[in-house]
Structures are given as structure tokens and as C-alpha cells.
Amino acid sequence: MEVQEKLALLRGLMQREGLTAYIVPSTDPHASEYMASHWTEVCWLTSFTGEAGTAVVTLDKALLWTDSRYYLQAGIQLEGTTVSLMRESDIDCPKIEEWLCDNLESGKTVGVNPEMWSVDGYKKLRDKMQEAGIGLKSVDLIRPLWIDGRPAIPTDTFYEFDTRYAGESLQSKFARIRTKMSEKQADAMVVSALDEIAWLLNIRGNDVEYNPVVISYLVLEKEKCTLFVLPEKVTREVTAYLSANGVEIKGYEEVFSYLKYLGGTILFDGAKVNEALYEAINPTAKKVNSKSPIRVAKSHKNDIELAGVRRAMEQDGVALTRFFRWLESDATRTHMAAGRVSEWDLMVKLREFRMMGKRFIEESFGTIAGYRGNGAIVHYAATKENAATVYPKDMLLLDSGGQYLDGTTDITRTVWLGGEIPAQAKRDYTYVLKGHLMLGHIRWPRGTRGNQLDALAKQYMWQAGITYGHGTGHGVGHFLSCHEGPQNIRTDMNPTVLEAGQICSDEPGIYRTGKWGIRTENLVAVTPVESTEQATTEDEWLTWETLTLCPYDTTLIDFTLLTDQERQWINDYHAEVYRRVSPLLSAEEAEWLKEKCKAI
Fold first, then answer.
1. Do domains 3-138 and 303-596 have the same CATH topology?
2. What is the pLDDT of residues 106-140, one digit of tens each?
3. Which of 130, 189, 196, 573 could form a disulfide with 294 if both were Cys (CB 3.0 to 4.6 A apart)?
4. DSSP secondary structure string for all residues of 143-170
């Protein structure tokens, strides 16, 4: 069906249910960033394939809210669909609830599927609607429409994640989390976030592309733990492992009936647990909405996890060295000059090199290979059919990552493929690099939040009247989600302080529509500073350990903008890249890397 036909059918169901508007968010019942294709309802309804977007359909309008990362992409994909783009990052763009209150009359009703809304999100929407005299009705209108071709919930089996990689046993994690539950006087905790369940039980799967998680729910009690999962996903080995650790297995949908009979005090994270689960909880139980202690514990990587990430980075450094060496080779450049190399070809080739690495499982997200103006589309996604041809000239942005049993990687490098480099391109690249370096080398007193550091990465481009719309840094999981919280580095107020063991990205960028995109990204881990010569207090000081191992493109640097300290930072980093990666390469590959890492 075409988008217009789907909208017409949806409006028919809305009228039957007495609804004036219906909201479809880009999420799943587990508040996932990436989701199984079974739940990609916004894409099915509107044709927009971005990771973040919410559709609002009224009886005569259809709108899609998305942020600045997807403006260009959404503009292209929504063309001819009758769905209007709402640029939510723009100052004058109303929030969804504001738009509804302004455009619907009092007494009208808005519909939502409660499984797709967190408890907090549902309450916020309901309260806003009530202020305007608008009702909120829980009803799933997509399920009866999306019948033909809707993917099933994945049934692939999952496996135990060995403690030699996890660094902590399931029982140890149970004890830690139950202690946190006791502090809240909770008898049980409901968990729906897939990465939290995978971390707590030391299990991994492949239900969601790029994320080794298992679609499931979990209820942890004082003396027992129950995992709710499709039975066909459970192998004999996993059953034995979980049973030996006191974990009972029940069917995926049985969680709703289980919660109806659960008494006492129930802890849940309202930012993650969906409204349908919340409503299923026994009405006599005391409900406590609090940030999940699993989310916090998971963000602090132990020594074994950090050691694993360092190994993964070395393997990633080898793959990237081989890729960029291949990209510069005479044979590749000849093919490029003849128009026989596309962005898709680059994505495939990089994956091939990563697959050669030890303990590589899959990519950690879809590689962004943005040539020329495509690099300015922050979350650009080339397909085999629409990928641009790449020639041996101009700018290429490459954002990629890998999932290894040892850990998760995420790196962006921007390189010049040939021809004369415009002065503006050099300035842009250098402003980005200077911000990246400054953030990556700062030290701060304990208690500092990520938003307090955000401006460090933007200061040079701000002085030039340039900025970017995406966050400067996101948390990263350990062989889990490439994007995880609660820590981050962005302008938004986040009360989470940066603490030892957390991993973040450091990725400022500049984007010139139609020209190029420039982003430089390393992963960095929070680590204590051993001493501070000029410290005036006894506060603990923290800094970053750079984990990523891949040289910068020094041909793009405007050296007149660099300080001596920044030159030294680059040289020290390149020396470390060569020291760690070169022993894993052939003699020819090591020689190529040596040239890329030579002092500037």
C-alpha cells in the first residue's frame, strides 16, 4: 500500500474508535533506540526510515516530528506522501502535545498504543491533554492494519555471555541490584529495557540488528527472578544456565498476568517501562518510579570489561588501517576514477576488514559513508541502490563501529580523497579537531556532569559562528548498545555525573549542506587522575583515557590554527596508535601506518 492508502485506512479506524488524532512513536515496548523490524511502525506508515521520529495523524492532516539529524533525510523520504515534516529542533516548532492542544477542540480524544509509551511519557501526554480538556485513549490501531508483510517477533535463540568477558557473575549482579532494591524498600523490580536484561543475566542474542540483546521482560524479586521470553528462543544450554542461577523462564506475554498477582512494593523505571506493563501491575501493590539501578551499574565498566574494550579497539584499529590503506591504493583509485566505487562498496569493504578481527560479531550500527554533501546528513544511510559514486577527490565522512565479544567500538574519521583542499574545508576540519582534542584532554573535579563539558568541544567553532545540532558524546555499552545512558555530553541538562568506568564518545562536527560533513570521533573512558600538581582542594579529579586507535587525516589540518600543545597531543596519540596497532599488521601495513602517524 502507498502511504496515502495507509493513512486513509488508519483514519477509518480512528473514526470508529471516536478519535480525532492518533500518535505513532518510533519505539517498541522496551523503549529501545534500535528495534526489531516487527515494531517499525512509523516507517511502515510514513516511509521515513530514521531512528527518531513520531507521526501524528488527524482526520485531515499527517505530520512527522524529527530532530535536526534527520531533516534532510525526512525531507526526501516524505516527498509526495502528504506527510508534513515538523522540525522539532527549531525554536518555533511546537511540541507534539502543544500542537494537539492548539489544533484540537476540547472534548476530543487522542489515541495511543500504551505498549509504545513509557510510563513517564504517557503521564506527561495525559496531563497536558487534560489541561486542554482532551481525552487520551489506549488502543492499538496499527496492528489490525499492518497484517501483510509485518515481520514476526524474532525467535532466534540466545546464549550465555561468559564471565571471562563480562567480568562479573550473574549472582554478584543480583546481589548488587537487590541491595539497591532494598534501599527503596522494594519487594520486586520490573525490567523491560533489553540491554539491562542482557547485562544483568549475562546473556546475549541477535534479536535487534547491531545490538546483541534478547527480546524479553524480567521481574527480579528478593528470592527469585523470572525471565519472560518466547519459548522457542530458549535452548537446553541456556535453560540449564539460568536454572542453576535461580532464574525461572515463562512466556513473553505472560508478564502481564504475572504482574496482576504481584504484591508488595514494586520498583520500576518510568522512563523505560511501558504504560501497558504499569497498568497490569496489581492495583493493591505500591508502585515506586525510580531510575533503574541496573542502568547505573551497567554504565560503570569493570576492569575486565575495560581491558576487553582495549583489545577490541586494537582489532578495530587493524581493520581501519587496512581499509584506509586499501582506499588509498592505486588499484582502488583507478576504480574510483572510472566511477566503479560507491558509498555502498566502501561500507561492504570496511565490514569485510572488520570480519577478519578476533571475536568480531557484527557491526555496532549501520556504517555512515557520506561522500561530499551526503556527509552533511548526520545520520545518512546509503543503500546499494541509491549510494553515491565516490571519486578520488573531495571529502568522505566515515562513521562506523563493531561489536566484539570484548566490547563495542564506534569511530568517525573524515578524510580528503584528492584534489586541492579548499581553505574553508581545512578551517572546518581544524575547528572540529581542536574541539575534539580539548574535550578529550580535559580534567575535571568529581561531581561534574557531561553538559558542563559540552562547550569545550564547540568553543572554537562558536567563535567562528558555527555549531552543530547533535550531542557531543553518548554513553557506550560493553558488547551491548552503542548508545547507552545515563551519562552523555550534550547541551541538555542531565543530572548524571561523570564517574570512573563510564565510556563516552567525543564527536564534534561541522556540516555544510551540499558540500561536506566533518566529524571526528573517539571513544573515551572516565579514569581517575593520579595527581594534580596545582590542585587547591582534596577533591578527586577525573579525566579521559582515549580508547580508539586510528590516526587523523593530517592533510586536512590548518596548522596555523594549532597550538603547540595541540600538536603534541596529536603526536602523542599517533605514537600510541602506532605502538598498539603496528605489531598486529604485516610489514607493509605497518609501514603505511607509520607514515600516517609521523610527527607533525
1. no
2. 999 999 999 999 999 999 999 999 999 999 999 99
3. 196
4. TTT--TTPPPPP----EE--HHHHSS-H
